[in-house]
């Protein structure tokens, strides 16, 4: 039922063009990734990766206070590091 509703909502609203084919990496979550955030990315045809490359669209972190190796790699590649709030604003996520 829940999946059916999500699918209908997506068909009605369409995919988010800012996320389609974009690659995102989560870092600093200590095994507690916000899976609803992953769902938003997957639902909108985005990609979740565990490796930062120059093709990564953004590294999403719970806080910029705790520096991780993926954040350092992102900086080296010129990839933005975004908090959840910043991700939601930059990629027009309305339901968060």
Structure description:
Strands 2-1-3-4 form a 4-stranded parallel β-sheet. The protein has 4 helices and 4 strands; from the N terminus they run αβαββαβα. The protein has a single domain, classed as 3-Layer(aba) Sandwich (Rossmann fold), CATH 3.40.50. The longest helix is centred in the N-terminal third of the chain and has 12 residues, at 2-13. It is globular. It has helices at residues 2-13, 35-43, 69-77, 84-90, and strands at residues 23-26, 47-49, 58-61, 81-83. The chain has 96 residues and is of the alpha/beta class.
The CATH C-level class name: Alpha Beta
The CATH superfamily appears as BRCT domain
CATH third-tier fold name = Rossmann fold
Q: Strand sequence of the main sheet, in spatial order?
A: 2-1-3-4
Average residue pLDDT: 91
Total separate domains: 1
Helix content: 25-40%
How many strands?
A: 4
* Alpha-beta content class: alpha/beta
Please report which band the strand proportion falls in: under 5%, 5-15%, 15-25%, 25-35%, 35-45% or over 45%.
5-15%
What is the CATH architecture assignment?
A: 3-Layer(aba) Sandwich
Shape: globular
Order of helices and strands: HEHEEHEH
How widely separated are the two ends? Answer: 21 Å
Spans of at least 5 consecutive residues whose pLDDT stays below 50 are none
């Amino acid at each position: 039922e829940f999946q059916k509703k999500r699918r209908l909502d997506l068909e009605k609203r369409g995919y988010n063009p800012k996320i389609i084919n974009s690659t995102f990496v989560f870092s600093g979550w200590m095994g507690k990734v916000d899976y609803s955030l992953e769902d938003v990315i997957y639902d909108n045809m985005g990609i979740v990766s565990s490796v930062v490359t120059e093709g990564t669209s953004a590294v999403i972190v719970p806080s910029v206070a705790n520096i991780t190796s993926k954040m350092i790699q992102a900086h080296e590649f010129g990839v933005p590091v975004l908090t959840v709030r910043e991700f939601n604003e930059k990629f027009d996520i309305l339901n968060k």
